[in-house]
């Protein structure tokens, strides 16, 4: 079976070169030609090649070859069917024959294949070429975004030892509602009521969790309950929040260009947002020095602001925030750092993902500073699933 698949990939490589040559000979510009006309062109030339070279191919294989080559010419090749599959959340390409997808929180191997390493790199370059980004030995890593908003990270040799790699976090227009999350068991009605009250009463909230636990989903859901008369500024690396709100300003960070200049960081955007008269700031994720400005904003008139952070527990989230403050130049003692956190943050919402892919809110804690403990925590909610999962 592996040999048959390899032979098909080799055939695809030969036919692909042939079709590209024919496009050049005919002077056909892909970007200015209708999809139907392009499909007819690809179909006719693929069929002609197969017939001319007397390649034994079944009707199903011929149709597959036409579809795949059409995707090569007009889109991102083998990635196209995966990008079109609404069940898939993440696409992970570890090499030409090593492709995984995440469906409902569970990673599984895909039957998708690339021809070789060069094929993977061609697709990466097709993704980044409209953005003016560079990918070569001197610049072997790149972050990009597909036209639909999906986030892409790509890395090639010599940094990637086993060949080029692509990681795609798909963007979805269909965000889960609060009722969807309750129905799926991600939280109880009591937990939802608690969170709505926290948003409406302008509590400063951080959503904490590991990779793939649904932090952005919960942040998006919470943001829906911000009162309509308030002005909201959102700051993200890749715009994923979809707030149905009448008064919103969306800001997005920008990476450096090929000359290494032009970068706009989340920290700069948080500073700038304070000059935009926001009632609330919604920061997609805390990763670095922007935590300093965010906490100070929360503590000086921008109550009800929100963000997410990578952490495995509410207590770990506090430790991570303390670390970020220290390493990013917040010059204060441990107790002063604790007081800043305790006086700025009000609520931490902790998320968990089980091995079977199920995601849920494991706990909601309130920070209530005391004389002895500036980051003292009180539990407002704990999920029954914690006991079943051995988390308590």
TrEMBL record:
It comes from the Bacteria. It comes from Marinobacter mobilis. Belongs to the GSP E family. InterPro entries: AAA+_ATPase, P-loop_NTPase, T2SS/T4SS_dom, T4SS_GSP_E_ATPase. PANTHER family: TWITCHING MOTILITY PROTEIN PILT, TYPE II_IV SECRETION SYSTEM ATPASE. GO terms for molecular function: ATP hydrolysis activity. This is Pilus assembly protein CpaF. Residues 201-355 form the AAA+ ATPase domain.
